[in-house]
Amino acid sequence: MKVAIFGTGSYYKRFRKYFDKIQIVYVIDNDRKKQGVVLNGNHIYAPNQVDFALCDYIFILIKESREIERQLLEMNVPSEKIKTYADINSLLKRQSMVVSDDREITLQQWNEQYGAKKIIIFSHDFSRSGVPVALMNLALLLRKMNYHVLLGALGNGNLEEEFKELGIDYITDLELYYKNTEFLKQLKKFDLAIVGSLVLSELGTMVINENISVMWWLHESELRYYKKHVLPDEGKNVYYFAVSNRVKKVFKSYYPEKKIEELYYYIPDMENEIQKKKNEKVVFALIGNVSQRKAQDILIRALEQIPQYYRKKIQVLFAGEIPSKCRSDWEKIQSQMPEVFMMGELTQKQVKELYHKIDVLICPSRDDPMPIVVTQAMQYGIPCIVSDQVGQSEFMRQGFGGMVFPNEDINELSKLMVWCIENPEQLKEKGMQTSKVYKSYFTEENMRKRLNEILLKIL
Prior knowledge:
By secondary structure, the protein is an alpha/beta fold. It folds into three domains: 91 residues, Rossmann fold (3-Layer(aba) Sandwich), CATH 3.40.50; 187 residues, Rossmann fold; 160 residues, Rossmann fold. Strands 8-7-11-10-9-12-13-14-15 form a nine-stranded mixed beta sheet, with helices on both faces. A six-stranded mixed beta sheet has the order 3-4-2-1-5-6, covered by helices on one side. Strands 18-17-16-19-20-21 form a six-stranded parallel beta sheet, sandwiched between helices. Strand 14, helix 10 and strand 15 form a beta-alpha-beta unit. Helix 11 crosses helix 16 and helix 15 packs across helix 17. It is globular. The protein starts with a strand and ends with a helix. The mean pLDDT is 93.
């Protein structure tokens, strides 16, 4: 088989490995800056430089492929030759592979290793973000409870590095395989499927239709997700759970007839008691990938409201991935605001190390059902400042364990930051309070007890 690959961005990087044993005649890109460059041993061509007659298929490795499809059709490329990444499995005959003990095995081989008590957990991807981390922790606990657990995701992500360290078996790129007959055959051998997001509605519906018991753990609290990702009609084999009361309320507003229970995630117990570093300055931190939802811009604007007298007494750390399109903006911010420090994306181990250094966690999110970083801060006895659109705000009523400000209210946020600077002893007291919130709701013991109740009912 001779193929051309159209697109050299993130989807190229993600799916290029599937073409290792295929003859790639051309790699194509519309970006003139890329044309002429050699990528993985292949010269990048402009579309008008390509003789498509030499190719059996042209694979479009771009998420939104329709525009490229039209472009190829206008160039008189036969429609039957034009394929997308979704066709990789059917045309290249690649099997879904499980990473287990630093080796790759087929899903069938993984299933043959174990008898009963098998659970598969589905995530949208394996990025270092809230839902994948919560599902990773869930997998670790289920394994302690003597279940055989496999994590699966439509995509992939950097969290895979931590799966390998922790010995968690996982499978990526299910977007290519989950409608495949062989995958469905192997899926039926699991006792339970846990679906970790509303955005997996198509996959979750398919699993329910295969008559597999499904525990659907919802983490979305914005109504737009419920409009876009429709849940299936009620089935006897599906049980819905909400990660927070905030999610539960939104779910019931959209599906008033469906039953849903709350299920908080848990944070693994600390291996050692925290030995907090004494800082010369008050250290604030915002942990989360830079995005509109995480509202890093709100914290920057609040910081600008604080008088220089106080700003000289603080450090503000931003930890999280910065999209390439806005890196120059953040470089400019850092150069103009000496109290701001950008740390980039951190592993879970590095995040835990960061808690030893910070005095206050800030979560100004415009919408955040139950951010893990806030709960982790609570575990470490670190007081938090959160917006009223953050799930944990319900535990901070009357200032217990932290402080809540109205969403996007930069003036109120800046006042709370100044209060933290001026009241170090009272800040310590809030830290002790926040630890009590963690112990009341988010410990491994609490989660184990709740899971035993749920699994006894489902299985």
